[in-house]
Every structure is written in C-alpha cells, then in structure tokens.
Design brief:
heterodimer, A: 126 residues, alpha+beta, Outer Surface Protein A, domain 3, four-stranded mixed sheet, B: 374 residues, alpha/beta, TIM Barrel, nine-stranded mixed sheet, 9 strands, 12% strand, MftB (chain A)
Chain lengths: 126, 374
C-alpha cells in the first residue's frame, strides 16, 4: 500500500474503478480489482446496493439516502467505503481511467492462492 | 472461525480460488509433485473443450484462475487459451517450471494483461534445488527469471515449497526475489502425488515450522497461498482466511476435466464430478454431493477438546488423508504434536494404511525416485 492517507469525503461523487468487477454471493458480494489484483468482501446486502449505485448518485451520502439507510448506520458505511477507497476499488472524479496496466507491483498482490489467500474483508455490520 | 469464514465455509456461487491443471505432461519429475505428473493423458481436454470451460468460468464470474499441471506451457495451444481467458475477463495466474520461458515467450507474456506468473524453485542453490526438481533445473529457472526481467515482465512470483532441506534458506529466497523485483511465495509441502512417498522424510520438522511461523509473521508481504493455517494455532493468526477451503472457496479442474475438492486431493474420494456432465462445472460446483457435504460444519473430532481448534480448524484435509489419518484427526503437523501422536498410534495399531493417488502420470521407471538427503 502506498503511504498516502486515504481521504474519503462522503459529500463527494464516487464510482467503481473501471477495472473492478462485483459478483453477488449469499453473504453480499465479492469485489475484484483486475488492476491491483485485490479481492475484497462486501458483507452486507445494503453495502452491495450502495456500491452498485454510488456512481449514479451525486455523493456517497445521497447513495446512502437513496438506499434507504437509517442515518445512524451511515458511519459504519463510511468506514467500509473508506477501506474500498484505500484499495482503489472506489475512485473519485479526479481519477483518470488507466490504460492497460502491466505493472502488478502497485500494491501487495493479495489474491495469491492455491487455497485461499484473500485481501481485506471489508467488514461492515454482519 | 470468524463470521466471514463461517459464511465462506457454507459455500459460494463460484469459487474464489480455482486451480485448473492444463496437462499432466511435464519434462520434470519433481519428487514432491502434487499431481504425479509426467506423461500427457490421452483424454486431456481439446482446445475447443478448454474454451468452453473458459466461457463457463466467465459466465460464473470467476475473476481469475490458477493454471498448473504438469507444465502448462507444454500444451501447444497454451498461448491461445491464455489469450482466450484474458479476452473473456478471466485473469490468469500460471505456475511454471520455467523451462519454456525463453526470450521470445517472455516478451509475449510481458505484453499480456491479466497474466501473472509463478515460477517454481525449491532451493537457493543448485544442490538443494536439483535434489528435488532434477539436475540442471536451478540453472534453468534462473535463466527463465533472467528472461522475464529482460522482457520487463514486471513482478512475477517466486514459489518455493518448504521442505526440511530448504526451509532454512528463507532469507536467501527473500534476497533472490528482491534481486528480481519478484514477490516471494512459500507454500506448505503436502503428502500429495509423488509427495506421498517423500513427505515423511522431507516435511519440515516441528522446530523448523515454528521458526517459519515467526519468520512469516514478521513478513506479511510474503505470499503463502494461505497454506500454513495449521501454524496459526501457535498464536497470532497468519494473514489469510485460515480455513480449509476445499469445496468451499477452492477446487481443482484436472487436465481431463474431473473436478476435485482441492489441488492436493487427486483421489476418487474427493472427486466431485466432471465438467463433461450436464450443467458442466457450474453444476458440479453448486450442487455435487461431495461439495455439499464439505460445506456442512466440520466435526472437530479428536480436536474438539483443543482450545486452538478455532485457530487452525483441525488443519489440512489432504495432509491427513494421505498420511492415513481420518479427516477428523489432528493435522500430522499439529503444532502441539497431537498429529504426530496420532500417526504413532496408527503405526502401533498395525501400521498406517496410506492411500495412493488415483491418477498417476509419472514416467515409467521413474516413479520411485530415491530422495537424496543432503
């Protein structure tokens, strides 16, 4: 990981990185970043909804609102989104879409496995 | 187990880690080969069958596959299928002995996106490595690494199976990986394939395992395939999920299209089905009897009274099975020695009945390679 502090602004517009794919699973979803080879878990269906719709909302908070989330739950969602920003799964408007990236070395490649290496689990409420 | 591992143990729509072996052919005869590879199987999948599997994996949103063998680069259609995977959005990570990585192939690989390479080496010097992988292989793998560097492939992975003879060279592996800007990957030696015969003499001693655990704890950037989860019973868990993923998050498609619970259990007891069946791989993954059973909560068995069961989950299924232990026994390398005790009792009661692999493609006359202890 780069040492830069992660800045997540809940009032800003966010969207999924163009090289990120999301796969529905019984517990929520798996999210994979083809660029940095990170894998992460979205462990709540509400979080999946937020991540899927965040690009169409003017801000993260607007996406929370549109998903019908009780504002008391927003801080835990902000925390989850912060870790997604840190893993470059979510990007803001300053992000310029990449060209083909053959440099695998941007971050720790965390999906090594003959069994189950995984990346961070984006832990939100169970 | 955490809530997450509970959820994962119950199964997923698609595997997280799918190993797909492309051929049993190999020009080497490594003494620990997990798939007893050597000769090509006449029933290996055709190019068209391979592509049909890729189509299904893409549909299941399998993000990437771990390609192995045998030596996958020996397939004449190797690049064609790799390119097909990439075009379909299925990332490729392949394990190779490096023998086919010449200057031209290194450049071709470097030009491709979504392709990761894991190159196998089993010693920091020719004497240590060649005892396991065969004469001349240390020099050959270094040549392959040089080609990858010259082609500016980027960060490849250097993969070492930990044995009694090489585990004390971990610092040298780290230095070698650094020299090439590579990632280091250390994995556990299981008694699978030809390893059934060699594991008992070559697996690291318990003292070596404790040293390895401490070494890995201090180096979370070193990849392990999450294979040392049995060591997490020592205290602080190693990075990773720390569970046996067989049939839950992991499985294997072998070169003839049979589907097994994990890459280390090429045995009929762990064969879930075949990609040739109706519904193909997806049906086997989602509803085979074997995988359904493996997703049930596991019985702690003999480990039920151990306070560390939550940390190690009783260890590796394949390692127990191929040493002759029941699946609810402790792992043979249990850090508290319970596995060694279980093996001793097995011997005392008339000897362990060790299963053999159901599929052996070792070259004739070279099946039982004497292990030279250095």
């Amino acid at each position: 990981m780069t040492a830069t502090a992660t800045i997540f602004d809940a009032d800003a517009h966010w969207r999924l990185h163009e090289r990120v794919a999301l796969r529905p699973e019984p517990f929520g979803a798996l999210v994979y970043h083809y660029g940095n080879r990170r894998l992460t878990f979205l462990r709540s269906h509400d979080l999946v909804t937020v991540v899927e719709t965040i690009g169409d909302a003017p801000s993260a908070r607007a996406a929370f609102d549109a998903a019908g989330l009780d504002p008391r739950r927003w801080p835990s969602f902000e925390k989850a989104l912060t870790s997604l920003v840190a893993g470059q799964f979510l990007v803001d408007d300053a992000h310029v879409p990449e060209q083909i990236d053959t440099d695998l070395g941007t971050d720790t490649t965390e999906t090594d496995s003959d069994s189950t290496d995984t990346a961070h689990s984006t832990d939100t409420e169970g | 187990m955490t809530a997450l591992t509970d959820q994962l143990a119950a199964g997923l729509n698609s595997p997280i880690c799918l190993t797909w072996e492309w051929t049993y052919a190999c020009d080497l005869q490594c003494v620990h080969c997990l798939s007893s590879s050597g000769r090509r199987d006449p029933n290996e999948l055709s190019t068209e069958q391979m592509k049909a599997v890729v189509d299904q994996l893409a549909e299941m949103q399998v993000f990437y596959v771990n390609i192995g063998g045998g030596e996958p680069m020996l397939r004449p259609d190797f690049f064609e299928i790799v390119e097909y995977c990439v075009a379909k959005g299925v990332g490729v990570k392949f394990s190779t002995n490096g023998g086919r990585i010449n200057a031209e192939n290194a450049k071709r690989l470097a030009s491709m996106d979504y392709v990761d390479i894991q190159i196998s080496l089993d010693g920091a010097d020719a004497i240590t490595n060649d005892a396991v992988r065969g004469e001349g292989t240390y020099a050959r793998v270094r040549t392959a690494m040089n080609h990858l560097r010259d082609a500016e492939f980027g960060q490849f992975k250097l993969s070492v199976v930990m044995t009694r003879e090489n585990v004390e060279q971990v610092d040298a592996y780290e230095a070698l990986a650094d020299e090439y800007g590579a990632e280091l990957r250390l994995t556990r030696f299981r008694p699978s394939g030809r390893g059934i015969d060699t594991w008992h003499e070559l697996h690291p001693t318990s003292a070596q395992q404790i040293e390895l655990y401490n070494w890995l704890l201090a180096r979370p950037h070193v990849l392990t395939g999450d294979s040392f989860f049995h060591l997490s019973a020592l205290g602080e868990p190693l990075p990773g999920l720390n569970l046996c993923g067989a049939g839950r998050v992991v499985c294997l498609i072998d070169p003839v299209g049979d589907v097994y619970a994990c890459p280390f259990v090429l045995h009929d007891n762990f064969k879930a089905g075949s990609i040739h069946e109706a519904g193909g791989f997806a049906a086997v993954w989602r509803s085979s009897d074997l995988f359904t059973e493996l997703r049930e909560p596991s019985n702690p068995g003999a480990c039920g009274s151990c306070g560390s069961f939550d940390a190690c989950g009783g260890g590796c299924m394949a390692t127990k099975f191929f040493t002759g232990l029941p699946l609810d026994a402790p792992d043979p390398e249990c850090v508290f020695g319970h596995g060694e005790e279980a093996l001793r009792q097995l011997e005392a009661n008339g000897g362990a009945v060790r299963p053999s692999v159901s599929v052996d493609h070792s070259k004739p006359g070279r099946k039982r390679i004497p292990v030279s202890i250095l």
